Protein 1
Amino acid sequence: MPDTTTNTVIEIEKLNLIFQTADAPVHALSDIDLHVNSGEFVSFIGPSGCGKTTLMRVIADLETPTNGHISVNGMTPAEARQKRAYGYVFQAPALYPWRTVERNIRLPLEIMGLTNDQQKERTARNIAMVNLQGFEKKFPWQLSGGMQQRVSIARALSVEPDLLLMDEPFGALDEITRDHLNEQLLKLWDATKKTVIFVTHSIPEAVFLSSKIVVMSPRPGKIIDIIDSSLPRERTLDIRETPEFLEISHRVREGLRSGHSYDD
Amino acid sequence: MMTDRGGSRQPDLWRRLYEGKSFPVFTVLFVLLILWYVGAVYMNSDRLIDQYERGKVEWSWQQLTEDAWSMERPILPAPQQIIIELHETVIDKKITSKRSLVYHSWVTISSTLLGFAFGSLLGILLAVGIVHVETLDRSLMPWVIASQTIPILAIAPMIIVVLGHLGLTGLVPKALISMYLCFFPITIGMVKGLRSPDILQLDLMNTYSASPAQIFWKLRLPASVPFLFASLKVAIAISLVGAIVAELPTGAVEGLGARLLAGSYYGQTIQIWSALVAASILGMLLVWAVTLTEKLVLSRTGREAV
């Protein structure tokens, strides 16, 4: 269990987001209340359309809420974005195909206006962090899907944010690669003490990674359960066989079911 | 043994010829040449038979064919006449001579390239404006499209006359007509290219709170490069057309267009045809040069041409 007296990174109260579409307004997020403390690993889980990605995009200031309160590092999301308070990993790697691995990771550093030496140093360090040494000069199309996603993680880390937002980063990968990257991600989280927010629709992935699981349901998108995980911070894939793991998985599944998310 | 191997090689050769590119191309060329020679006899025979009858000369089919392929001012010259003319005006004449086709090609190429440079610049600037300023998108785009509905042959003499009154003569007015033709595909291609980054790639820039200038230089511009080159290939070819058209109605004495016009004044069909051949070779060389640049640029950025 992470220490609950540490700093609040994200504070959301009574937040609503309504999309005005052509036929009818869509209530994407309804009365969201959420607190995330520094160093937590928080998963948003729920079926498609439950607003989990939208909620993360609100935190990242890529969407503007209709009403309610939200602060990121004590600032508005817009201020936090301008201060580059977070790194964002998208569902797809979103690498620029005309840049090599190295230059893709350098992209945010160029935009931040770091010196050439700083750029080089940070790029090398983050390539090593995701075990991609030797692939610096390769273009994205020369890499497998898993490697591409690792490049995009290295790119997000190179900004050196305290907060990492990850939107189904391993959704498109096969299960073996996914397990492997999940383990690597946990090690990284443990080593860097970053706060991670992770969107997924896989129950085992959410339970394996998280210190806090936020269960969501659609129409309107709302939080139906928040589970503080009792699993230790250091875990291996074997933990998935333990009774505690299965118990938490069960509670997540119950939550998803009570949200009537499988009715249609 | 030897004959066996020779026998088994024969079909391989035929197969390779059949499946290769050059065999079909040469077959078409061969058929065209035959049609051309037959056509030359057919087109030129009326005037020859007329001559024979007025001179009360006995004539045979063989005589007619030979004469039809070697007239001084034929209606349709035979291919070897054009080749001889090309040889004389390209290789034998000094390139400073007014009768050298190399000299005239150079004149046309300079205004083609200048017009291409102007057109690329204008096309790219318009595209950047259209993509970034919504007002320009709505106000400029219809005009850009309307500009191409005006026949260039109608507007070219007016441009030359108006610019001549303003004291602009020679290369620049011709280049402006090339520019008028070739900015259009560049604007269209470039607008598409600058808008090609997907939402994810743009969102990424927003998470870094990148400035509009950074988004342009680091995302939109590099993403547009393959589109730009596709447009440039079209643009350089029609820039050459523009340069030749600009030389036609203006009484120009230099350039391939002037050669075409002079040829038609004096019924010098061989001269017209050799100028045409020179123009198409130039066109191919220019497009090839753009394609080569494209390959170099795209391979350096790990991409292939679209």
Note: Chain B is about 80% helix and 0% strand.
Protein 2
Amino acid sequence: MGKKTIVPIGPYHPLLEEPEFFKLYCDGETVVDMEWETGYNHRGIEKICESKTFEQVFFVVERICGICSTSHPFAYANAVESIGGVQIPVRAKLIRSIVGELERIHSHLLWVGLAGHFLGYNTVFMWAWKYREPVLDMFEIITGNRNNYAMFTIGGVRRDIDETKATELLKVLDDVKKKTDLLVGAVMDDPVIHARLKGVGTLTAKDIHDFGAVGPTARASGVDIDVRRDDPYAAYDMVNWKVITTPEGDVFAKAKVRLLEMYESISIIKQCLTLLQKETPGDIKAKVKEIPEGIGIGHAEAPRGEVFHFVKSDGGNSPVRHKIRAPSYNCITTFRRSCIGGTISDAAIATAAVDPCYCCTERMVQVYDYHSGKHMMNAAELIKFSQQKTEELRKKL
Amino acid sequence: MGIEIFYFLIFPGLLFSGIIGGLISWADRKITARVQFRKGPPILQPLYDFVKLLAKETIIPLRGSVTTFILAPVFALFGAVISAVFILLPVLGIETGFAGDIIVIIYLLNIPSFTYIIGALASGNPLAAVGASREMKLILSYEMPFLLVLISIIIKSGMTIRLSEIVAYQAANGAFIGSLSGIIGFIAIMMCIQAKMGLVPFDMAEGEGEICDGIIIEFSGSILAFFKLTKYIMFFALPALVAGLFFGGLSLSGINILWSVLKVLAVVLLITLVRNTNPRVRIEQAMKFFWIWMNLFAVISIVLALMGL
């Protein structure tokens, strides 16, 4: 093998909206090895949550991710409600599901657009994002915000969906469905897209199990997992829908799963709206007096996969420990399997195919000595270490 | 001597082809924007881009070879201007050129691509190196069908290697696009031009989402402006060449101006539509496409030309 060249993707690169660094070791165009570095964007979300009250934490976790800004509150609500054993009203359940599925539609449309952009197919990028606009407008009508909806609260939701909003939503859904047909046609039947995506970044079912990948990434490899069905929350056990899986595992399969999931989401929302119209208008929020001592685990199916929240309460008014795991954390580990062996062009789209959200998954790790329980390194030492390293690099230049 | 300097600097050289090229690139951007539901830039945007870049700071990479790095865009511009002059003089019917000028044009049209490679390699950036290697492979793939289509044209026009005579032959016997071999050759040469211009689906040397604009990643300020101007001029010279080879040339007299504009715009519209309805292909797919399919098209065009179709 010849000399290896390092082709950097990141920390600032048009491929990634977020700071993230991939080192592709290349032999010509072929990627023979890769490394990645995270940790450019640690925000201390978990620690901030511990300083807020249970109600306030919703607004913090919403801002973990600007795109799945309902999935995190969803998982957090499930966790806190499991501590208190809160029963939420049916109406709230339905509204939660509607918001969750609307979010899935907008997130998948966003991904289709971005994937098109990474392939140099800017027309798909612009079209998909244009079709996403009515969905965001719908969010504004229902929740008051195009993003970061502030819709959830402990025991229910904060705003009701009345008859006028429901009819408006149904109209938008029909429109979105037509547009989805168009996009599916443009993507699924284009021979150049087939040539570019089929057989690229293939992950087998075994790879998925080995790395623990979740969400559409896993479902595109034929692994039939979906939190909405496996551990139903909100209204997902009250409606009929199916989990989309496909066995191929390449980037094209991931695109297919996402596009077809949009149809399922539309169907779920429609069924929820029908159920909502049958319900008599009433409570959208259960009365919760206090959160007792205990631990709660909540998870939800975000557009990218399973979001996991662990909340520990000591009976006070704020969580004493809040652990969050975003789906990208599981999915980005598959990059070594999907990128190595392909070309640089393939690596670009294979990394984008899991719809990674790096900022959401950034966590800080402290190193303790196992036996003595002492810090291996503190902040001052780390800074000293970093300065040493910079000095060494300078000498090399 | 005076008239040559006028040809190269004012008309149809630097100034004229630069302005028309800028307008064409605006048309391309405007059409693209309308296809994508966007508003698009104002008509003077190419000029603004160029002037803004001239005023910006030029950053020279420390590790690179400075002289080569700075000279590459200058030579790119030279190559573009000279090839534009040699194409436009006969195609517009101003001068007859010289015997064998079509062969000179083939060489001159390659100069911008080669300077991209040299400039990219001189910058010492790994992403630029990847881009340069892709550009090399791309040149290797599209040159062959390009030459073969020209051979087919030469056969059709009675074995002349003079561009003005090819244009004159079409004026007498009808444009080549009207014949079967002409249509097939036209398809092949349009693909080659797409690759020569570095537009989607053959923009892998720049590959924005993969290697951050690859070959031009390190260029900034006025030397990037030179590359930009090169692109504008090529955006006029190449469609003009196609118009000369297939549509019977351009003319600047009376109502014929309208026809000339329509011919160039038709070619530009085709280029724009192809670039807006395709994703970027991988480099080995592009090579396969040119070596197998486009060469096949070009050879069929030659065979049909020999049969007189």
Note: Chain B has a mean pLDDT of 87.
Protein 3
Amino acid sequence: MTTFDYLMQGFGVALQPMNLLWAFVGCTLGTAIGVLPGIGPALTITLLLPATTLLSPTSAFIIFAGILYGAMYGGSTTSILINTPGESGSMMTALEGNRMARNGRGGAALATAAIGSFVAGTIATGLLTFAAPAISELAFVFGPPEYFALTILAFTSVSAVMGASPVRGFISLFIGLALAVVGLEYNSGQARMTFGMLELMDGIQMTIVLVSLFAIGEILYVASRFNSAAPAVVPIKGKLMMSRQDWSRSWKPWLRGTFLGFPIGALPAGGSEIPTLLSYSIEKRLSKYPQEFGKGAIEGVAGPEAANNSAAAGMLVPLLTLGLPTSATAAVMLAAFQNYGLQPGPTLFTQNPELVWGLIASLYIGNTMLLVLNLPLVGLWVRLLFIPRPQLYAGILIFAMVGVWGISRSWIDLLIMGSLGSLGYLFRVYSFPIAPVLIGLILGPTTELQLRRALQISQGDPTILVSTPISAVLIVVSLLILIGPPLWSFSRRKPVSATAEDS
Amino acid sequence: MSQPQAESRPWWLGFAVILMGGLWIWGSLKLEISDRLSGLGPGAFVLIVGAALVLLGLILLWQIARGERFEPEDTEDALADAPVSYPALASVGLAVFLPALIMPYLGFPITGMISFMLIAWALGSKKVPMNLAIGAVLSAFAWYGFTNLGVQLGAFFPFAG
């Protein structure tokens, strides 16, 4: 079967009435959480994990895909109308989009953001459709040394890039790895770091960690420094349409944003911030109207929005083909796969084609749904901003407790929730990134397993870890990410001190 | 260049990371059986993680000594430079930790109701009866919905037998 045949098979799954309904649920929820503050796609998927266990994995992932894309659409609405990015990838949209809204061009800003998101999402899903199977074929040549090297690359890139400093990123990562070793060791059956507690023998549940770090940490942080000022929404003047000039100024930024966002989103720690930032600066440089930037240039909305949505699709490439999460949302989706006993990677395409292709097909459908849902219903989405914050955050805690208490009805789980929630609070206060904790927790067992397998093959010889070209390249790239930036800054500092001595 | 004040240097962060690393090293040393084929025993990975945390803790202390800045994050509903409200923090802390004590005895709906009220109070909503009522309805709704979805949340009123 060709990729096209598989895709058609996927559409057969995604177009089933129930799956269409789940796609609609996911898109609606995603847009809502994109609009609402404090709730991101990672937290929403986490809170939904217990509720989706009764669904088939395909239906659950169709909801999750809708949430992922919907959050990107919703984020642009708040950026444009209240100058508050609902998602980090919408920061650049806020810069120009809110200015446009203040100038009475909010309708055009919302339209270029929505249509750009649709164009980018569709093209990027097309790229995912054809790139993912090819990369997954490549992954079949991966053995334990390559997989070990790949996890090391994920660790170094995510930890070095995210957060205020690489040291804090690595501390986050190793806290995640430390939590990952808690429980029975699969090889010897020995209890590790359980402190004699039977409840910890199965390890610390991923759902508890996710809920605690995202939801509880956020509630504690918001409560400690609550900004009670009501959002100032700029009213939308005119129709939600673009003029001929708006179209001609938007289509190129959409395409550039798409092709910028997809590859960067697929890179470990690429995320959506870097491509949107790059897209903005490229559009500013290429625009025929550079003087409008900072005052409401439509290119500054069109490009970054396209890049943002394209990056979301790019993120799915390493996740589906290699089982490699490159962001917090991807880490949560990987945890969701593991919840169903599935391991993303090359075998997922051969063993669960219905799931993978149904998921990919649902991205096309979800994208179309979001375009229809977003523009005409923008007034409804804006009303979500007026949900009182005290009740909103209190409601989040109720759903967080469902996820934690529902695992095994253990008071220890609730205690861990409180403790890790406090850790999440400290992470926010002292600018430690959360994503490396999740990636350490999720990939830690895989890293240990692949390291042990590799050393078993070589009978304890560690040189096996760099014995193949792929593993050697991955390890070298990891080392460059690790030591490159400090060496670079050191080499740049030297001439300055020399100049100072000369003077 | 002006140096940050001593109290703005969170030394305890570095020491906490070192302490955690030390705990993991200690835990690894209690695991003695090794895998002869790979040479990697069950404690090896734990030891690596513990040692890395100790090393990173030391680097963090060094950075703190050099004046590394630790600034809170600005989010949509929280102002990084706003003064910390300790009563609000305590109220949310209570809402988060109290369930571990009362959930097994009072059940999900009542616990949820109390936690809901505490969080709403922390975020400025002082209408206690109204928040208790909303919390009760939302918790009961969540209990009913999720129990029907197959999530085991225990009895509605465990104390009622």
Note: The CA atoms of residues 18 and 87 of chain A lie 29 Å apart.
Protein 4
Amino acid sequence: MHPKALAHAAAATGLDAVVVCDHNSAENAGALIRAGMREGLAVVAGMEITSAEEVHVVALFPDIDAALRLQRRLYAVLPGENDDEACGMQVVVDEEGEVLAFNRHRLIGATTWDVDRVVSEIRSERGLAVAAHVDREGFGIVGQLGMIPDGLALDAIEVSVRTDLPSARMSFGSGRVILCSSDAHRIDDVGRARTFFLLREISFDEIALALSAAQGRCVLGGGRPMEDLSTHLLDIARNSLEAGATRIDVEVNEDPTSDRLVLEIRDNGRGMDAATAARASDPFFTTRKTRKVGLGLSLLEAAAKAADGSLDLESAPGVGTRVRATFRRNHVDRAPLGDLETTVLVLLADGSDTRIVFGHCVGERRYEVDSHAVVDALGGEAIASPEGIALVREAVRAGEASLRPPSGSPGVDSQTAGR
Amino acid sequence: MTLDEAAKTLECSVLAGSAEDLRREVRGGYVSDLLSDVMGNADDGCLWVTLQKHDNVVAVAHLKDLAAVVLVGGRRPEPQTLERASAEHVVILGTALSAWEAVGRLHRLGVCGRGNPRGT
């Protein structure tokens, strides 16, 4: 991938930071770091290392020098030469995409380091070790080794775009730090999954603190912008924040009886006039100055239409905006909700001066999280603090659990019912 | 066939396992280097032929109550892996043979895989 195009695509999709991870090499990391600077995109030098057991481990390094030091040791245990014919040429490029050299190592191969050694090599450079795409059978640690070995000093595990966060928590345990990433191998994949962090600033050190939930930093959650409705909700509610709203209501209403799912976001922000509102779901229209396209509403509209539903938008200048998307709940093409916990956490952490009320209703059951109630309970502490995040997380988890029918009851609520 | 006989057939050294452990009967065989696949598909009492030598091999063999692990291609696990195996009575045999050659010899002597009419 061309470094400039990659950095541009990442910034345009709204990412603040990416980790560049070639297989068993960091030779192109410098070019992307420099290309990222021009786009205002933070780039962390990384590497996707293949262990002797063919487990992929993603390394994040504090700086490019650490990455290159590890690379030197790694090349010594990476047998073979690349076959240009079969695997394509492995180019080393500068930020303009000019070819500087060809990498002769067989980067597609496995090192002779076992997975424990890979992790200890990463840690010796003060790096972070993340078990890559644990939801994949091939090259994922669970697929290759049956389970995550006890005592392996991983900083996090990563799930790919195949898995949403709630399923990942169920499969891999909520005790682990789970990162959602695109594992992008092509430009189009960039940003298809993302992780939300609570950080002071964007840097490797801050990410390291967040992975160990230290000094108030943490991982808030993750989502898949093309797949998860929860991520659409987040995008649109963030628009409400940008529109200067002092109150935002986000409501998810599932009605199994009528087989409807309704998502609604209401705000009292500055609103839009009729002409602007009419164009709001046009993907090439955005009031944003920082990127050219505003996909939020158009993606949500496409998702609604795919599930026999629709999107409507009402807005008035000085009054506010209401976005409402409806879906047939059990439609085969209805996108999954994804992780609402992430949506609520990111919104409440972002919108410190705004009253945000999130409600989720399934049939007769409903819970809500009101940022004012959270602020009151915190007694002056900000929501974007360890106490605040823990409180909101607990409220959403308890709320979501209260919506589930008691186990063992017939699956009228399940997504497959009525198909 | 007992594990003892299988070990002789494959020119194995016994890396972990007591004389008592080696009297166990072999009820079939399975070859895979994906441990998740072994957990899903290998039957208890099987010989498991693999080149993986990670600690988790012991855990999977124990969990599935496999007869033994046959490490091919001359691979040797770390000493602490072997200690763990001995403690759990997981037999580990090491052979210089390739997986193909090892399985061929066993199959010829009637050790079959799951779903084979000759197997149990």
Note: Chain B touches chain A at residues 33-39, 52, 54-56, 59-60 (CB under 8 Å).
